[in-house]
Structure formats: structure tokens, C-alpha cells
């Protein structure tokens, strides 16, 4: 019996050590090397350019920021040329800008982060549920901790005349992505955990309109984009076309029309690489920017949600990885349809940043930005870790099988040996 227990615990400990080692290797980048060994922005740009040239069909615009100055840029297109002023639809990246609009209302004293969001809504309210709707705060919505279970995901509409009203979309979005009901409602206790919700940001879009008395795009333009000097940034589809909308490519490298959206805040910001670079550098200017206070910016960068023990979300922005300066690499990614992928990431400790806007790939921008985070910090960012989960699980399975089989074989031999001794 003692030998069996020793064998059992030895097998169990080996399994734990193997799987923990694989997890740490994936999350800590134990066997990963930076995409480039040199520290210069041009060296990183050259490495990205090689990757794009080998794999990408579509549009690609990248700007690198070093110590709050544009240090390098790269633009590629399979069709009409793109440059720093070309306008892209940036999908969920717009949530970061939307959070600035919400925080402006907070600093104006028109709303509170910690009062029920229902206090401020005039045109629509969440449907009844088994949970307390009045417990949802603005802070919950910004940090995806409201308990909403919509899973949105919007696919958009073919034609502008098909676009729903905000109220109708919140009740049931007809353009909900596959597998989602499109109904924005409580599915869990507010504040109990993190669950990404596009519907929550559609609700914030309604909040901004109801509180400000202005159409969403007008408010964002007047209070955010114009003061920051973001001249090509808009939530208005027609204006984006006038500003020089780059072609939209699918995964096969064919052009296709952009979609139209009700959920502007969640998924339909239009902007350029230059404007997003302006947005990043404005946050580090010595005289500061005029839109939000430093206290508000610091609050937004403070952890508000975590998963598996890692801080992943602030207020309206992602916390990608520690920056080794008691803070985080912050920003947001965006994905629309099968082939729009955009990123803007920023290190508030030193003013370094990266902007990548692409069509024609579902992950290229995110992968290159993850390489930038690792190159700058030596840390694996949260999305790179998620992208590595499938391979991590495969390696766990590869090791777990032999360990269990080995344990069973040793147990069988030990049992036969004891049986032989008993017969003797």
C-alpha cells in the first residue's frame, strides 16, 4: 500500500509540475525571443515589414512612437495606396475613445461612476431579470463587470436604411454576431466578475446622448476629437468616406464594402494612424491635454477587472502586460467582420506606443503589437497569451498522456511483483 501511495503522489506531482511549467512557459515567455534583437524603432519596423510582405494581402498602416515622438512608420496596400492620413474602421478600438466621452461627463459632474446607470437613462431601460438592474454602475459598464451576458459582437448592416435605433438594438440587435441573441440584459450579479460586453458600450452610447442631449458623434467630435486635434476621426460613416476611407479587404484579399452600425461606440469608429498617434502623444505632453485631468487618466489605467490572477482591464481600456515600471501597457484592439484588425498600445511610463490599422487579416495587427510589447518589456501580453492557449493545451496533453500511462504501467508492474511475492 505504501508503494502504491508513493507512486500515486509521484505521478500527481509530475502532472502538476509538467502542466504548471507549460502554463508558465506560455504566460512568461520562457522560450520566446523578441522579433528583433536591436533596440531601435527602425529595426522593429524592418522586422514587421518582412512579416507583412510575406503574409499580408490588404491594407496595413503602422506608426511607432518613441518617447512621445513619431519614430518610424510603414504603410502597405494591395490596391490604392494608404498613408498616415488614410481612414480605417477600427472596430472595438473605439471603446477606448468612448470611455473618454464618458469620463468627460464624470468630470463635468453630470454623472457619477458609482451611481446606477439607470438614473441617467431616459429612452430605454434594461429588461427585468433575477438580478438587480439598479446595481449596475457606469464603472461596471466601462470595465465589463456589469454582469451583462449579450456577448456582442455586432456584424453590422448592408445598407444605412437597415440600421436600427439605439433602443431597438439594445432590445434585440438584428446584427448580432453568430451565436448571440443580441439581447442586452443582466445574466449575472453586477460586479461579480469580468465578461466582455459590446452591449454595455451601446448602453454607454445611449447614456452619453441622454445626458448630453447631443447625438453621440456630435458630442464625441466637440468634446474629444476636436480638442485633441483628431481631424480625421469620426463615428459618422458618410464623413469617413469624405475623409478618405481606405479600401476594406476580406481574408481572400478581395475588396468588400464596409458595414453600417447602430452600435457606434462599441464597433464603428473611423480614424487614421496619424490621429491615433495624436491621441497617444496628447496623453504625455508636458502641458497636458485639455480633455481629461491627469487624475481621470490615472483612474482609467487602474485595474478594475482580472482573470486567472492577472489584471486585464481598467476603465475603457485593456491592461495588456506589466510595463516593469509599476504600471501597464494600455490600449485597445479591434476586430470587425472577418478581416478588420486594429490596435493602439501605449506605455504611460515612457511615452512609447504603437498603432497598427489593417484590413485583410483577422489577427496580424494584434500579433505584431504583441511582439512590440514583448520587445519592449519582455512580458507576454494578455492577447498573445490567449492566442497561445491552443498550443499550450496541446503541449499539456502531450505530456499528460505519457505521465499517466507511465504511472499505470509502474502501478501494474508493482502489483504483479507483489502478487508474485505472495505466491512464493
Fold and architecture overview:
The chain is of the alpha+beta class. The chain folds into two domains: 2-31 and 388-423; 41-379, Beta-lactamase (3-Layer(aba) Sandwich). The protein has helices at 2-28, 41-55, 94-107, 138-143, 166-171, 198-212, 216-228, 237-242, 264-267, 273-282, 294-300, 364-377, 382-423, and strands at residues 59-66, 69-77, 87-89, 270-272, 305-307, 310-313, 318-322, 328-336, 340-347, 352-359. The chain has a six-stranded antiparallel beta sheet, with helices on both faces. The chain has a two-stranded antiparallel ribbon with strand order 3-4. Strands 5-6 form a two-stranded antiparallel sheet. Helix 1 runs antiparallel to helix 13 and helix 3 (94-107) runs parallel beside helix 6 (198-212). The protein is globular.
Amino acid at each position: 500500500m505504501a508503494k502504491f501511495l508513493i507512486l500515486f503522489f509521484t505521478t500527481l506531482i509530475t502532472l502538476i509540475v509538467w502542466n504548471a511549467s507549460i502554463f508558465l512557459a506560455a504566460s512568461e515567455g520562457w522560450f520566446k525571443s523578441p522579433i528583433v534583437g536591436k533596440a531601435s524603432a527602425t529595426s522593429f519596423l524592418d522586422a514587421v515589414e518582412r512579416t507583412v510582405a510575406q503574409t499580408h494581402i490588404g491594407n496595413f498602416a503602422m506608426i511607432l512612437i518613441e518617447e512621445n515622438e513619431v519614430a518610424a512608420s510603414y504603410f502597405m496596400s494591395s490596391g490604392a495606396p494608404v498613408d498616415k492620413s488614410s481612414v480605417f474602421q477600427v472596430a472595438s478600438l473605439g471603446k477606448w475613445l468612448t470611455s473618454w466621452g464618458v469620463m468627460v461627463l464624470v468630470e463635468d459632474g453630470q454623472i457619477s461612476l458609482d451611481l446606477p446607470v439607470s438614473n441617467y437613462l431616459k429612452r430605454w431601460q434594461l429588461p427585468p431579470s433575477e438580478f438587480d438592474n439598479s446595481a449596475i454602475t457606469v464603472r461596471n459598464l466601462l470595465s465589463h463587470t456589469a454582469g451583462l451576458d449579450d456577448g456582442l459582437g455586432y456584424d453590422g448592416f448592408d445598407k444605412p436604411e437597415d440600421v436600427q435605433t439605439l433602443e431597438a438594438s439594445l432590445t434585440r440587435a438584428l446584427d448580432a454576431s453568430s451565436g448571440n441573441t443580441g439581447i442586452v440584459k443582466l445574466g449575472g450579479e453586477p460586479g461579480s466578475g469580468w465578461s466582455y460586453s459590446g452591449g454595455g458600450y451601446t448602453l454607454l452610447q445611449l447614456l452619453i446622448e441622454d445626458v448630453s442631449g447631443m447625438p453621440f458623434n456630435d458630442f464625441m467630435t466637440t468634446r474629444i476629437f476636436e480638442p485633441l486635434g483628431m481631424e480625421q476621426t469620426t463615428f459618422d460613416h458618410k464623413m469617413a468616406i469624405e475623409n478618405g476611407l481606405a479600401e476594406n479587404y476580406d481574408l481572400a484579399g478581395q475588396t468588400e464594402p464596409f458595414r453600417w452600425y447602430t452600435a457606434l461606440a462599441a464597433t464603428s469608429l473611423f480614424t487614421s494612424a496619424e490621429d491615433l498617434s495624436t491621441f497617444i502623444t496628447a496623453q504625455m505632453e508636458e502641458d497636458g491635454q485639455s480633455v481629461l485631468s491627469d487624475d481621470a487618466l490615472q483612474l482609467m489605467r487602474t485595474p478594475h477587472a482580472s482573470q486567472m490572477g492577472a489584471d486585464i482591464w481598467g476603465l475603457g481600456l485593456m491592461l495588456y502586460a506589466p510595463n516593469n515600471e509599476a504600471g501597464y501597457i494600455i490600449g485597445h484592439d479591434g476586430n470587425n467582420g472577418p478581416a478588420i484588425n486594429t490596435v493602439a498600445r501605449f506605455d504611460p511610463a515612457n511615452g512609447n506606443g504603437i498603432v497598427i490599422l489593417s484590413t485583410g487579416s483577422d489577427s496580424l495587427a494584434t500579433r505584431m503589437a504583441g511582439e512590440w510589447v514583448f520587445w519592449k518589456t519582455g512580458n507576454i501580453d494578455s492577447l498573445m497569451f490567449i492566442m497561445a492557449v491552443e498550443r499550450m493545451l496541446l503541449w499539456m496533453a502531450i505530456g499528460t498522456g505519457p505521465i499517466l500511462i507511465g504511472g499505470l504501467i509502474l502501478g501494474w508492474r508493482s502489483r504483479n511483483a507483489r502478487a508474485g511475492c505472495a505466491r512464493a
